[in-house]
Write a sequence for this structure.
């Protein structure tokens, strides 16, 4: 099945709604006031079904100048435009404004219907047709079919239907593998069902019972039911007009302009970096810091335009800018937007959203990264965005919600960045190579400095090293350390792989004396401070030597003050095994007597054995855990 959305455009009373009814049999004017006054006030909807699995949803928009905001709410998701111009009036002000809006939204195709053909003669019809062709010159409708129709007599309706089908079949479908996103244009309740929202699915798909989120409010809910053009469906796809029945949400909690999407992906945006273009016939110059009305999707908010590289924008000019909005909107990079003059209301331009989550920058700072977001490849755009997040990194799901692209394409681009070393893949997200390389340099420098100042220490503790990097969690820091090739991490100690403790002949001689003293004392070895005094070495240096000897396997560290020789430690284990061959448990006194030591040493020895799961303390006795 192929789904295409057609949107009407044109001046008030040019017969848009009547034409939709003639095409589909459905009156798109659903409001009582619309029927009483004979004008379209809000969005109307209908559809055309064709063979070959083609369904064309129609969004009928109001043509009155005071209702442009309603027109804009329906224009965001259209694939093709049906420009409607009455034969008895020709091109009118809202014809021009609607065309400018569709052109600025980068509508790619469409066709033109000259309505009320039955009200004019052949010469007048030819004159209007010529004017219409001049009117659409240099726009996306320049080569579009122009068809004279009459909703009253049926003239041209069949041909118009055929042309709609022909053009619709040539349209590239919306990205069904993208992130599901549905700008809400209607909210209502149905008895027995609850709250229903409708809109045009811009990308992705959504299924029954799936978890969804209403943004920017952050209301998490569940899809209770789905309909498209009155038919119950199990899954809705990009390009469809969709009605979504939401579970446990009140109608009053949701409004037009909000977006239904996948939870925990898109971040609401109040500041947006964008390209801005002023219409050639805007009739004004736009000064930096001007207030405007901003429209994207179905949302409308007031915002201020901050021009980056100039003080004002002249008609027809383009620039990079930042849009600072009074309330958040849900947009993605590569979306289009429209701006209207703050007062009086007048469509003056629009452009492309380049970064809905921009970094802070000074106005006169370079805009190189914005240029990448405009002209770069998908890989370049993602790389630049990852770089903006520095040492914090960014998750793949956040990138899914940042740019309007199909998810497999984003994954392919991210995998390419990882493969070529542009990005580092961490369990919590992605880190750009630039901050990673900075971290590497800083780690290597800090560890090297530590070795120079502490030549007898095996390395710096991870906690002391992390103090150089504010804002990095221990878990993330540990993962980063594991990816630095030139360091070795041994438990809680970090050292350069090339580092080895280098001892002088004097220190080597001292190691021999320490080993001799400790070994000779069997299970009543001298304490660290006692060794320091006996060998005339300061206690700090003695502590470092003892740790080195333990790391080399010459000694076993019982606690910070007690070390025994590895040979004596083996004797201790053998003695315990022999004891437990004769009995099932051991008291402190029995252990003390077996080693021919004192309680002063027996207790630390047992605590060490307990902590290393060699023995198990049960009340006042020990049991053996060590297996043969």
């Amino acid at each position: 099945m192929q789904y295409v959305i057609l949107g009407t455009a044109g001046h008030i009373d040019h017969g848009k709604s009547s034409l939709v009814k003639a095409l589909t049999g459905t009156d798109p004017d659903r409001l009582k006031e619309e029927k009483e006054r004979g004008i379209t006030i809000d969005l109307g909807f209908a559809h055309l079904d064709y063979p070959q699995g083609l369904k064309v949803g129609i969004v009928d928009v109001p043509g009155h100048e005071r209702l442009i905001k309603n027109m804009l709410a329906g224009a965001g998701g259209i694939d093709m435009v049906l420009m409607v111009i009455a034969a008895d009036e020709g091109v009118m002000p809202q014809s021009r404004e609607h065309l400018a809006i569709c052109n600025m939204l980068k509508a790619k195709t469409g066709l033109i219907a000259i309505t009320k053909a039955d009200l004019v003669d052949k010469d007048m019809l030819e004159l209007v047709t010529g004017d219409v062709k001049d009117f659409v010159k240099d726009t996306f409708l320049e080569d579009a079919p122009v068809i004279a129709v009459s909703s009253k007599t049926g003239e041209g309706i069949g041909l118009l239907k055929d042309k709609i089908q022909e053009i619709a079949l040539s349209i590239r479908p919306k990205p069904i593998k993208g992130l599901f996103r549905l700008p809400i244009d209607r909210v209502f309740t149905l008895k027995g069902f609850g709250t229903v929202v409708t809109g045009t699915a811009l990308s992705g798909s959504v299924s029954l019972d799936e978890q969804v989120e209403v943004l920017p409010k952050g209301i998490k809910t569940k899809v209770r039911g789905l309909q498209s053009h009155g038919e119950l469906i199990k899954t809705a796809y990009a390009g469809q007009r969709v009605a979504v029945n939401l579970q446990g949400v009140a109608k009053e909690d949701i409004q037009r302009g909000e977006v239904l999407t996948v939870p925990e992906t898109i971040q609401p945006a109040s500041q947006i970096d964008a390209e801005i273009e002023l219409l050639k016939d805007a009739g004004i110059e736009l000064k930096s810091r001007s207030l405007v009305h901003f429209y994207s999707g179905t949302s409308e908010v007031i915002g201020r335009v901050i021009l980056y590289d100039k003080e004002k924008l002249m008609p027809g000019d383009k620039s990079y800018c930042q849009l600072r909005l009074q309330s958040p909107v849900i947009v993605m990079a590569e979306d289009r937007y429209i701006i209207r003059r703050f007062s009086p209301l007048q469509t003056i331009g629009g452009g492309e959203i380049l970064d809905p989550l921009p970094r802070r920058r000074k106005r006169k700072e370079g805009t190189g990264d914005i240029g990448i977001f405009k002209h770069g490849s998908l890989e370049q755009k993602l790389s630049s965005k990852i770089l903006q997040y520095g040492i914090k990194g960014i998750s793949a799901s956040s990138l899914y919600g940042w740019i309007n692209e199909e998810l497999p394409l984003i994954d392919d681009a991210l995998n390419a960045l990882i493969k070529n070393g542009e990005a580092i893949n961490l369990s919590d997200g992605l880190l750009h190579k630039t901050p990673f390389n900075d971290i590497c340099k800083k780690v290597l420098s800090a560890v090297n400095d530590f070795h120079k100042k502490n030549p007898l220490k095996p390395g710096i503790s991870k906690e002391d090293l992390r103090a150089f990097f504010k804002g990095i969690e221990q878990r993330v820091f540990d993962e980063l350390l594991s990816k630095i090739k030139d360091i070795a991490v041994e438990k809680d100690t970090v050292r350069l792989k090339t580092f080895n403790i280098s001892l002088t002949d004097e220190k080597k001689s001292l190691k021999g004396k320490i080993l001799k003293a400790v070994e000779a004392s069997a299970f009543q070895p001298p304490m660290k401070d006692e060794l320091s005094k006996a060998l005339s070495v300061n206690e700090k240096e003695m502590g470092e030597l003892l740790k080195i000897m333990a790391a080399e396997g010459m000694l076993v560290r019982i606690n910070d003050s007690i070390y025994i020789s590895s040979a004596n430690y083996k004797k201790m284990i053998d003695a315990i095994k022999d004891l437990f061959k004769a009995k099932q448990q051991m008291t402190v006194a029995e252990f003390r007597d077996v080693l021919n030591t004192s309680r002063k040493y027996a207790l630390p020895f047992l605590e060490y054995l307990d902590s290393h799961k060699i023995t198990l303390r049960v009340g006042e006795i020990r049991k053996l855990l060590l297996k043969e």
The chain has a mean pLDDT of 90. The first strand starts at residue 2 and ends at 9. Residues 433-453 form the longest helix (21 residues).
